[in-house]
Structures are given as structure tokens and as C-alpha cells.
Design the sequence.
């Protein structure tokens, strides 16, 4: 099944770059582009793409409002240059399925689209660590329904540090498919929906205590 994608960004060179990256994937196709927020909402409502990539600072309607308007209709991943906590919190509160910095690179963009299609949320590593680090001193959550294995703990720690599946696989010398299995097992044992939930548990439980 091909994932149909709408790109919303006011910079043409960014749209071209994203299109080239995504159209090169065998399971993805860019079906439309929008240069402003109103255009993105109109096209999304007409074309019903599977995923919308939305910049934050766009003419007429910003990406945060685009996210709010389209949440429930399609999956929205916010992709921006601006690394501000306020933007991250608002995007996630408005229903974003991901928050990426444009400097994160093509591999993470592709992974974020696949994560969104799988019902997961992917956030740029630089943002994840800062967003969750404050949980170190919060009250610890309930323990997992069943103990995590040593390998699952290793994977959880790396997720909490914002590593992608490919980076975890390289660091632990295991296959990407094995990483996906470990991540799924950790999510099940912790009763969390996505990688953000794993990271939140790791920070607040003291499983991760430093950089």
C-alpha cells in the first residue's frame, strides 16, 4: 500500500527536497504541495492524504493551526526550523503525529512518516531529550506489567535519548527488525502507545539519569 503525502511549506526548495526524498521510497507518493496553511487545509480536505507534512511558519495559517484543523482527518507531522518548546507542546496538544526539525535529515523524515502510519509518534532526538529531561525529578510511574529484559532496558534507554531504530540497531549490533520487536515489547509491558511514552517512563522512573 502506498502512503499518500501532502507537503505544506512556503519555501519551494524545501518542498522540492522533501518530494525527492519521499517519492524515492517504494511505499510513498507525494500527491500535492501547498505554499500556505489555507491551501494545505483545502487540499487535505479534498484529497484526503494519509500524511500531511506541515511547516509551522506559513502565510495565512500557521502549521499549528493546520494541525488542529486536520487532526482526526489525517495524520499531521510538523516539520520546522524552529526548535521552541512552545511549538512542540502546542503541536502535540493539537494532535500532531510527529515533530521534526528540518536539520534532522531524510532518514528520520521517512521514519516519521512510517511511524505515523503505524499509529506512533516520532519526535526529533534533539527535542525529545529536552522535552523529557524535566521528568527526572517527577514522581515515578507504576512499574511495568512484567519485568523488562536487559536488552529491552537497553533499548528503552536509547529511545529515551532520542535514538532512531537504525541508530539503536547500529549501537547494539542487532537488526532493525529486532529493534522494532523490542520497542513493541517494551510498549506492551509499559502499557504506553508510542516511543514518547517509553522515553517518559525511562526518565521519570530513573532508568535514565544522565545525558
Sequence:
Amino acid at each position: 500500500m502506498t502512503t499518500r503525502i501532502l507537503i505544506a511549506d512556503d519555501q519551494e526548495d524545501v518542498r522540492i527536497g522533501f518530494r525527492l526524498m519521499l517519492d524515492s521510497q517504494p511505499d510513498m507518493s507525494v500527491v500535492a504541495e501547498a505554499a500556505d496553511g489555507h491551501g494545505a487545509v483545502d487540499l487535505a480536505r479534498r484529497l484526503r492524504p494519509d500524511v500531511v507534512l506541515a511547516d509551522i511558519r506559513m502565510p495565512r495559517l500557521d502549521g499549528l493551526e493546520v494541525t488542529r484543523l486536520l487532526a482526526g482527518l489525517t495524520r499531521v507531522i510538523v516539520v520546522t526550523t524552529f526548535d521552541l518548546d512552545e511549538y512542540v507542546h502546542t503541536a502535540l496538544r493539537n494532535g500532531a503525529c510527529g515533530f521534526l526539525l528540518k536539520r534532522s535529515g531524510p532518514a528520520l523524515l521517512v521514519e516519521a512518516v512510517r511511524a505515523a502510519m503505524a499509529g506512533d509518534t516520532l519526535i526529533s532526538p534533539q527535542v525529545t531529550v529536552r522535552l523529557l529531561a524535566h521528568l527526572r525529578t517527577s514522581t515515578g510511574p507504576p512499574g511495568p506489567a512484567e519485568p523488562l529484559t536487559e536488552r529491552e532496558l537497553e533499548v528503552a534507554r536509547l529511545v529515551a535519548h532520542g535514538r532512531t531504530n537504525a541508530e539503536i540497531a547500529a549501537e547494539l549490533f542487532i537488526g532493525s527488525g529486532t529493534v522494532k520487536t523490542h520497542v513493541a515489547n517494551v510498549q506492551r509491558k509499559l502499557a504506553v502507545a508510542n516511543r514518547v511514552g517509553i522515553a517518559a517512563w525511562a526518565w521519570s522512573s530513573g532508568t535514565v539519569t544522565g545525558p
Remarks:
- The CA atoms of residues 74 and 98 lie 12 Å apart.
